[in-house]
Amino acid sequence: MNSERIIQGAIASLLAIGVATASTVSFAAGDFEKCAGIAKAGKNDCGTSKSSCAATAKTDRDTEAWILVPKGTCEKIAGAHLQMSEFAKPGGKSGVLSPAAKAAAAG
Length: 107
What we know:
Blueprint: H1 2-28, E1 32-36, E2 66-70, E3 81-82, H2 99-106
Antiparallel strand pairs: 1-2, 1-3
């Protein structure tokens, strides 16, 4: 009887892990776009010509600072605009993605 409960608990745990993993994978694999002009100061996903790397934007809603959002979201936000090149900054310099942005872009 006791070993039966242990087995049931183990199976329930495996199912819970599977569901959690599946939901995380589907979120990471979703289509995202870079949306500029909406990031709060220090919350940008990549560097700009004014800041060296992720999470270094100095002002809210900097027109160069972007974050990854689900596709179609950026066009619904007032004052937002899409960043067209995947890792480009003004002047052709490449930016450094934050760990969250890297994970979303890789998925």
